[in-house]
Design goal:
341 residues; alpha/beta; 5-stranded mixed sheet; 36% helix; 18% strand; binds zinc ion
Amino acid sequence: MTLPPARIVLGDNNVWALRLADAADGRGWLLIDAGVEADRDAEVDAWAMALEQARAHGFGPRDVRAVIVTHEHIDHAALAYRWATEGARIVVGREGIEAVVAGRAGLDAQRALRLHEYERHGCPADVLERLATWRGARGAIWEPCPRDAIDAAEEYETWALADGHTLRLIAAPGHTPGNLVAWCEDERALFSGDTLLPTTIPTPGLHFPGAVTGNLGAPRWPSLPPFLRSVAAVRALAPAVVYPGHGEVMHDPAVYLDRFEVHHERRAQQVRRHLAAHGASTAFEVTRALFARLPAERLGQAMTEVIGHFDLLLERGEATARVEDDGRTRLLLAEAHPNPK
Ligand SMILES: [Zn+2]
C-alpha cells in the first residue's frame, strides 16, 4: 500500500513516507518533509526517533531516494542535512533553496529584518524588546543542508508511486516563498505542509528572502496575497483527504478550506472598518485595536497577519500607504472604499 502514507511523528511535526514504484537503485522511499531537530538543550535525539519509526515502517535512511521539503522552515527542513548525508536528494521549491542551505543563520538574518519591519509598522520599543527576546532565546537547531544535495522542485514534476499512483509537486507560495504542496490525483490526496492545518490557521509570515544571502536591505516579500491564491488553487483541486505538516489527517478538507477563507474575509473586513473609522493607521494600531488582550510576546504574529492584510488592500488598490515624518508606515483607505459595510 502506498496510500495512506506511513507517518513519522516528531513532536507535533509529521514526516510522510511513500513507497516509490521503481526501487532499481535500492532506494524505494520518498519522504514529504525532512523533520525537525530537537532544541539544543532538549534531551531527545530527533534523528534517532525518526530512524526508529522509519525502521518500524520497513525502511532505513539509505532507502530514502528523496525528501520533498514542503517549505523552508526549521520544523520541516532541519533534518534535511541528515537525510542528505545518507544519500537522499533534497527537493526544495526554488525560492526556498537559499534558506535550506543557510539553515539557522538565514533564520537569524531574517529575524533582524522582521523586527525592523514591526518597528516601521508602528511597534513601540518596549514591545519590540519583548519580541526580540521571546524567540531569540530559543535554541532550535537548523544545520545547513549542502547545496549539492538539493534539487529545485521543478526538476521533479511527478513521482511514480507504488500501486500505480502518481504524485505531482505544485508550487503554492504563501506560507513561505518556496512553499510546495504534493498532490496525488487518483486518490485526491493532498500533502499540504503548512498551507492547510487542522488545528490552526497558518500564518502568512514576514519574509525577506534576500536577507538569507546577506542582503540586509532586502525588500519584504508580501505573502498573504499569494497565500490566498494558493489556498484557492488547493480548493480547486477538490481534495478528498489532506495529510498536513502538523496534526491529524483531514478527511473533510472543505471544512478547513472554508475556515481559512472565512477567517481572512473577516479579518479583511475588520482591518477595513478600523481604517474607515480611524483614518490613516499603522499596523500596530490596528493590531492593538483588534487584539486588545493579546500579551506583548504574541503581538508579532498578530501584527504579521495585519501587515498581510495591508498587503492585500494595497494589491487590490483599496488603500494607499504613506511613510510619515516619524518613519512609520500608515495605511489609508482609497477614496472609492471609504465606508465598508
Ligand atoms: Zn510547520
